[in-house]
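Quick start: what a row looks like.
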Amino acid sequence: MNGVNAIKDALLGQAQEDSPSDIVLTDEQALELFAEIRAMELSHKSEVSDGAGCNLRAHAIYEILAERGVKNIQKGWISSPLTSNGKPNFLIKSPVEIKYTRHARNFGESAANRVTNDEPFNIHVAPVITTAEGRRLVFDTYFYDAPPELEQWRNDFKPYEEGVELKFELTEPDYLYFNEIGSPLPEKGSVREMVSRGKSHLEVKNELRKLDLNPVDTPLKAKWLEDRRNAEPQRDSGPESGL
C-alpha cells in the first residue's frame, strides 16, 4: 500500500484500493442507489433554520457516491441573494411542510409533539450526477422519494418573498460549506487532498451524529419518473382461465 492510500485508510477508516472508479450509473441504477441511501438515517437528519443540515447530508451522500465509484459528481447550490450590506439573507422557502422535534434522539418517541417550521433558509445543497442516459439527477434524499431532474429541483425551491431571484451554481463536490466555494482545492490525488477529505469526513460524521431525525411526512415526487410510469402501457391480463 502506498503512502497516499495509507493516509486514506487512517483518515476514512476503510480500504480504498479495490473501490470501483469512473462508473456512470444508468437511470435504474441511480434509482436503486438513491433508495438505498434514503433508507439510511442520515437522509432524514436536519435542524431548524441554520441550514447546516443540508450541507452535512449532501457531503455524506457525496462520499457514498464516490465510494461506489460514481463518475463526475457535482454539488448543486441554491442560495438567497445577499443583503445590501453583504450579509446572508434567509429567503428560500421549503418546498414541502417540515415538522421538527428538537432534541429527540428517537423520532418515534415524540412524533406526536412535532411542530411545523416554515422559517425560510439561506442555502440548500445536494449532490448531482449524470446518468448513462444523460439525465441529470439530484440526490436530495431529504425532500424527495426519488431523485428529481436538476431542472425540477431548481424550480421546486421558491423564494419566500415575491420578486426575489434565488441564485444557483454547480461546483466541485469537495466544498463542504457555501462560503468555501471558489477557494482553491488541493491537487487531485495529492496527500493534501486526502488530508482535506479526511478532515471533512470526520467533521460531517461528528456533526450528523448531533442532529435529530426529522423526516418529511410527504416527500416530493420525481416528475420524470412519474411521467415515465404514466406513459407505460397498461397490460390487460385477459380473461381468466383455469386448468
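That is the whole record. Helices lie at 3-12, 27-38, 52-67, 150-156, 191-210, 223-231. The radius of gyration is 20 Å.
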